[in-house]
Design a protein that fits this description.
The chain is an alpha/beta fold. It has helices at about 10-15, 30-55, 60-80, 130-135, and strands at about 30, 85, 100-105, 110-115, 125, 145, 150-155. Helices cover about 35% and strands about 20% of the residues. The strands form two sheets. Strands 5-4-3-7-6 form a five-stranded mixed sheet. It has a two-stranded parallel sheet with strand order 1-2. A hairpin with a 4-residue loop joins strand 3 and strand 4.
């Protein structure tokens, strides 16, 4: 076959070789809502995989099949390693709880410490392995911690 009849970059072929989503080396701690979110994402990935299979030949849409396969592997692994953590309030900053910190300039912010897959800093939740959570876990109201080079005080723990 002549080179004139081949494409240098076959995007469909490239898409079929999507790299796996990286899986964290940290324990996969999850809150009850986090576990529910993982199960929903796994169900969605299974549905996407089934839909990609049902839409005819794989060659017709390699991208959809590759994406569905990759997501199915990721969410299956995350569900298999999920460790549900249900803790009781003991007055300390802990996984699954919320903490309000006050900066030196008087600004206060509340954070919820969650699993990696459910962390969303824009919505006020951070992963238990984030530098913020690591600096705060185990502390109580009135304690101080250094976060991003600034001293913060813990003003509330839920």
């Amino acid at each position: 076959m002549s080179v004139a009849f081949t494409r240098e970059e076959d995007l469909e072929a490239t898409a079929a070789d999507l790299p796996d989503r990286p899986i964290s080396p940290h324990p996969n701690l999850v809150t009850p809502p986090g576990l529910a979110a993982i199960e929903a994402a796994l169900a969605s990935a299974r549905a996407a995989y089934s839909a990609a299979q049902a839409h005819g030949s794989i060659e017709a849409d390699r991208t959809a099949m590759a994406r569905a396969t990759r997501d199915l592997r990721y969410w299956s692994a995350r569900r298999a390693t999920a460790q549900l953590v249900e803790t009781e309030a003991d007055g300390r900053v802990r996984f699954g709880g919320s903490v309000t910190i006050e900066r030196e300039d008087g600004r206060a912010r509340t954070w919820r410490i969650t699993g990696e897959d459910e962390a969303d800093p824009a919505a006020g939740s951070v992963s238990h392995v984030s530098p913020l959570a690591v600096a705060l876990i185990g502390k109580t109201v009135g304690d101080q911690a250094v976060v991003a080079g600034q001293t913060v005080e813990i003003v509330a723990v839920d």
